[in-house]
Specification:
The complex is a heterodimer. Chain A is mostly helical. Helices cover 75% and strands 1% of the residues of chain A. The longest helix of chain A has 31 residues. The chains are: A mainly alpha, B mainly alpha. At the A-B interface, helix 6 and helix 15 of A face helix 6 and helix 13 of B.
Chain lengths: 314, 328
Amino acid sequence: MRLLALFLITVALAWLSLSAGRTWLTPPEVTRALLDPEGAGRMVWHLRLPRLAVGIMAGACFGLSGLVFQTLLRNPLASPDVIGVTQSAAFGAVAALTMGAPVMFGAWAGGLAAILFLGWFATHPRRGLETRAVVLQGLALAIFAGAATETLILRMNDNSAGMALTWLSGTLNGVAGPEVGRALWLLPLALPLLLAGRALDRIELGDDLARALGVRVGLLRTGLGLCAAFLAAGAVSLCGPMGFVALAAGPVGRMMARGRPSPLAAMLAGAACVTLADTLARTFAPAALLPTGLYTALIGAPVLIMAVRRMARG
Amino acid sequence: MPLLIRLGQLWLAVVLVGIAALCLGARDYTPAMLWAAITAHDPAEPAHAIIMGMRLPRVAAAVIVGAALAVAGVVMQAMARNPLADPGLTGVNAGAALAVVLGLSAFGTLAQSTTAILALMGAAVAAVLVRILAGGGDNTLRLPLAGAAFATLCMAVVAVIVLLTPEARNIYRVWMVGSLAVAQGQTLAALAPIALTGILIAILCARQIETLMLGAEMGNALGLNVGRVLACGLAAVSLTAGASVAIAGPVGFIGLIAPHLARHSFRDANLTQQVLLACPVGASLAVLADLAGRWLMRPAELQVGLVLAIMGAPIFMILVRRLMRESE
């Protein structure tokens, strides 16, 4: 029931996003535009629809990856943007940009390097992976990758530096057909995670209990973690590291699924968050064109404060 | 007097690093030229002008910022009973930065004193908020997480303000990552006393803070005024962190590393001794980081905040690893 409500909210926000902008469209006009891609609907089909589609895909990927990391690390704050996966992916993307390589591969390389490093460095010889160590070392990794990215940007000329800075706060400006194609690449990665709800449920019980229930914890954690890192990095390559989406989508999705880690709910929450933020970015102060990521940060912040408070009490 | 000897050695290191920082840069000078610039200063000579007019304020700023942040780190780590506390990681620097940028956008340009006051208030509010957010008990994990979250939020608001006021953008790009390039003689003269006051408070209350951290009941029994000691600790942290943000922007990791190095340099130091030792350690770290940033990529330069993040993050990771191994 709640899941249905979340779905309806996402659809409504998507509809709003299609009608909002410099010229507002009434609902009948949106319908007419959607039915007529070449005539009256050119603007919607060429500008707003790709932007919406990429925003939804990226938001869903961030949300899913956030939920998976938060569950695997048993910490409501341990999303990819807190443990440095997002920042490393952004570093990889900027490095690829300066070298003229495809951005998506750069981002994937960065995200993969981050998760492999954390997995290796936080593993105790006898006790295995220590989730607390992953979170703390991830915090430092995030700062490190951020500083390394800044170093790259300092060597750019002013124009590309300005663009890179906007991109680094997360933006959907300039998104068009090719990005939609790239976004579709992420679907096969999202599928295994979407089906992993039951496995996540069991991992949540604790390593020992999960093992007793026949879950191969180590293998599952590696597989899910890698998938989630690829998803987050892919989303970064689409729209930059949007702050707080992954962080907020997990707890919201959980709330909507009555406390269970539901991948579908987290995806919807992430998609809704990015769609809402992008609509705000295009309607409020459109001349300044603030990056969408700033609005996601402002939307996500209250969720975050709630999560920390709950963690402090529990 | 082994402590005095150790302190002497550490301050000697600061002097040596400082001399190196005065001599090296986009253009290198010999120590003899440095001596000439100090003893027989000739404003018409470009080398003298560079050494005395540009490098000296910068080195002085680095010494003050480094010492202040190191003291802030020592006090925070003691008060939070958390060896990973640091004004950067716990969001105190970000809070101060947000306050300064808010002031900049509201009033245009700011006087030195206003900047300092805003930074102090921002630092104090952030320190209290993050501490409340993180809750008590074993907060090894929660304090840095709450701090990181709070810092991200502050920085997002800062970015909104800066993007809406284009004239602030250039200051922001240099200052926001932590830079000593903007430090000038007058700024320093106005802000150094604030940082020094903070360090002095820390030295004076260190013993009481240490006693208090044994437990509030114990502190009461020993006749401590708990509220006053906590207020003193908060004042020490916000004065030192706020002043250094006002001088150099948010600079991270000195507050984390310097206390650990200080404790390493002198076994079983009590908190007062730690504060005293952390000053020279932090100062030489900051001077070294600034020198590295200016020298390695010359003629371009890497801001001190970036150098420290790149140097400091791996050290933080190693600390965490050791901490986890110890807590068997």
